[in-house]
Amino acid sequence: MSRQMGDSHRRFLQTMMGSGIIDQQGAKTLYQYCCETHNTQHAPDKLDDFIETINSKLQPMFMQIRKGMSEDNGQQYYALVNMAETDVTRMSSDYADNELELFGKTIELIVGSENGKASSTDILNSADMLTIKKLKKSETEHVLNRLVHDKWLNEKRGEYTLSTRCIIEMEPYIRTMYQDQVKMCHICRNMAFQCQICENPSCGIKIHNPCVARYFKGRSEPRCPACDDFWPHEIPEVRHTRSQSRR
């Protein structure tokens, strides 16, 4: 496929700049729409090549459309990321310094937890320890709502997790800051926060919940893929993507 950037590539990129992140099915649909709109060849199995052409032109600007997996449902996503800055300061145009410090503390709580989650109570308590300027409870809640709205965090029943966008874009920062705490999923080799852990003390591998579902599907007895010990956790069901399931 030609590496020449065309109008279809530009339209795809403009949409990515507006949304920041898009799931794989949405990216495929957008790819087809851009090709049809600008009368260019659409090859359904060449999405990654199409995106690589865009990335080759983004490289001098230290930008990239990067692929990653959702820890929640196992779906693949594409995110437009800034590669020039590798920490939370990249968000300084949208957030105040103390708000960024709160976000950093939230990441620390999530990375250091056993289940990849941080409770609203723990985050509110961490707001009392900000060094720049403390935030009131209402201000902290407002910042957390913004971080969820801007797709940096997910929230469910008062517990916060790192969003897919955050994991993809902040991976270099998280790996550098928490290199002793971050573990990779044994199956997909991506960073694992929300996951199951082998209970064998000499093993302790982590596997994302969606990877657990796929790996153990159809196996009569679940055993750890690393040490072969019995896998005692509940095996979740494989979750289908939108294109595979009916509403």
From TrEMBL:
UniProt entry tagged with the keyword Nucleus: yes
InterPro entries in alphabetical order: Nse1 (IPR011513), Nse1_RING_C4HC3-type (IPR014857), WH-like_DNA-bd_sf (IPR036388), Znf_RING (IPR001841), Znf_RING/FYVE/PHD (IPR013083)
GO biological process, one term: double-strand break repair via homologous recombination
Keyword DNA repair in annotation: yes
CDD domains, per database record: RING-CH-C4HC3_NSE1
PROSITE patterns: ZF_RING_2
Primary residence: nucleus
One cellular-component annotation, GO: Smc5-Smc6 complex
Superkingdom of the organism of origin: Eukaryota
Top EC group: transferase
Signal sequence residues: none
Pfam families reported in the protein's UniProt record: SMC_Nse1, zf-RING-like
Keywords, ordered alphabetically: Chromosome, DNA damage, DNA recombination, DNA repair, Metal-binding, Nucleus, Telomere, Transferase, Ubl conjugation pathway, Zinc, Zinc-finger
Location in the cell: Chromosome, Telomere; Nucleus
Record field: catalytic activity: S-ubiquitinyl-[E2 ubiquitin-conjugating enzyme]-L-cysteine + [acceptor protein]-L-lysine = [E2 ubiquitin-conjugating enzyme]-L-cysteine + N(6)-ubiquitinyl-[acceptor protein]-L-lysine
GO MF annotations, alphabetized: ubiquitin protein ligase activity; zinc ion binding
EC id: 2.3.2.27
Domain RING-type: residue ranges: 185-228
Complex and partners: Component of the Smc5-Smc6 complex.
Job of this protein: RING-type zinc finger-containing E3 ubiquitin ligase that assembles with melanoma antigen protein (MAGE) to catalyze the direct transfer of ubiquitin from E2 ubiquitin-conjugating enzyme to a specific substrate. Involved in maintenance of genome integrity, DNA damage response and DNA repair.
Family: Belongs to the NSE1 family.
Name assigned to this protein: Non-structural maintenance of chromosomes element 1 homolog
Organism: Sparus aurata (Gilthead sea bream)
Phylogenetic placement of the source organism: Eukaryota, Metazoa, Chordata, Craniata, Vertebrata
Gene: NSMCE1
